[in-house]
Amino acid sequence: MEKLGIFTILLLALVLIGCTDNGELTVVNNSNDDVWFRINHGNEITLEANQDYEKSWELSSNIFGVEEKDVEIDYSGYHVFTSDIEFSIEAGESKKFKIYADG
Q1: How does strand 19-29 pair with strand 94-99?
Q2: What angle do CA 82, 84, 90 make, to 5 degrees?
Q3: Using 50, 70 and 90 to split pLDDT, how confident is the model at 61?
């Protein structure tokens, strides 16, 4: 009986701890020239025409919910007006942000 109680406590602890899963972001340059962007005010990244860039974060999830990563992308380019966008990525989620030429 005592072993059953210990097993139950260990099982409950494992469920509450949860697990980790990646939150993934893909930035796609759909313009015909170079674009530049920064993720969360980090280093500037250059994408040539029709290239993409992938980044992932290890996020946790458990029975109480999933962790979110707030993402801000500042971007501009030869034919792209300077702008920014903000959104959240959850554990196990993949988001794609496409940059198009403005004119």
Answers
A1: parallel
A2: 155
A3: confident
User: SS3 for 7?
Assistant: helix
Tokens 């198009």 correspond to: 100
- Is residue 7 a part of any domain in this protein? no
* Spatial contact of 99 and 35, defined as CB atoms under 8 Å apart: yes
Residue 72 lies in a domain: yes
HSE-CB at 46 with a 13 A cutoff on CA atoms is 4
Q: Residues 92-101: pLDDT tens digits?
A: 999 999 999 9
Look at the chain and report how many structural domains it folds into: 1
Nearest Cα residue to 75 out of 39, 48, 23, 50: 39
CATH, residue 76: 2.60.40
- pTM of whole model > 0.85? no
| Paired tokens of 36 | 């530049």
